[in-house]
Specification:
This protein is an alpha+beta fold. The chain contains seven helices and twelve strands. It has two domains: about 5-135, Trna Endonuclease, Chain: A, domain 1 (3-Layer(aba) Sandwich), CATH 3.40.1350; about 140-265, no CATH class. The chain has helices at about 15-35, 40-55, 100-110, 135-140, 155-170, 175-190, 230-240; strands at about 5, 60-70, 70-80, 85-90, 115-120, 125-130, 145, 195-200, 205-215, 220-225, 245-255, 255-265. The longest helix has 22 residues, at about 15-35.
């Protein structure tokens, strides 16, 4: 299987999820009232797991979800898995952000379960947000590919075939670094790494920008923008301040792989 779980996970109804969430949240409030809001994150995770167990709930800490594809392997770890069904991510941050939501949604897609709770212990009172998805693995594995302007050489064809095989295997909608790392492994045979690309103003180097290089004069950009066109304008500006020939740009959304080539017109 392309996604392997260390603990079998089953789907529960929304009502069952909310019942589990209420029990865990009540314990989180008790911990917050006793420990305050300044502890390290691991303290809250450990204590919440301990109290959930004492309350008769089944708890797995650091439940592993392993993604494999063609020799590539990447592990993810869910903070708390309650009752073999409910993902709970504990944070100690000033505010929950879209990045935290994205991370938790990634765990839901990996686990194949629809409901999760984000619990923040750093705020004045415990703050909980819901994260949910209706997408199944089958939903995430259905996609079309748009490749107008995509180069027809062997390297770019391999990128396309690799992405399509990966998306058909593990689905779209996971964290973007997974696709970057898997693509680098499959296309170059190496782990994903960044190179310092000189940025020019005329003939002057004004700094460097981290980019993934397919070859010395060709970079690869992998993104997941719902509306990618505004990014293309800025990517065009970026590439024209380098000595790169072009950037092979991949944008991934559930249902669509978009392949584009952003050419340096001054090259």
């Amino acid at each position: 299987m392309p996604i392997e779980l260390s603990t079998p996970i089953h789907r529960v109804s929304q009502d069952e999820y909310h019942a589990i969430d209420r029990r865990a949240l009540g314990l989180a409030f008790d911990i917050h009232n006793e420990f305050g809001r300044l502890m390290d994150e691991v303290v809250y995770k450990t204590e919440l797991a301990t109290r959930c167990l004492a309350a008769g709930m089944k708890v797995v800490r650091e439940a592993r979800a392993r993604v494999t594809h063609g020799g590539f392997l990447k592990d993810y770890f869910i903070d708390l898995l309650l009752e073999d069904s409910t993902v709970l991510e504990a944070k100690t941050v000033s505010a929950i952000t879209s990045g935290h939501h994205g991370q938790t949604l990634n765990y839901l897609h990996l686990a194949g379960t629809p409901h999760a709770s984000l619990v923040n212990f750093r705020t004045e009172r415990v703050h909980r947000e819901f994260v949910s998805t209706r997408l199944s693995l089958a939903d995430r594995c259905r996609f079309t590919t748009e490749a107008e302007g995509w180069p027809a050489d062997a390297r770019h064809d391999k990128i396309r075939r690799t992405l399509e095989a990966l998306a058909a295997d593990v689905g779209l909608g996971l964290q973007i670094n997974l696709y970057r790392e898997a693509l680098a492994f499959q296309v170059t045979g190496e782990a994903h790494r960044w190179s310092k690309v000189p940025i020019f103003s005329g003939d002057r180097i004004v700094g460097h920008h981290d980019m993934s290089l397919l070859e010395p004069e060709v970079a690869l950009a992998v993104t997941a923008f719902p509306e990618p066109e505004p990014f293309r304008l800025h990517l065009q500006r970026l590439v024209e301040h380098t000595r790169l020939r072009h950037v092979a740009w991949v944008n991934l959304n559930v249902g669509k792989i978009s392949l584009d080539c952003v050419v340096n017109h001054g090259w």
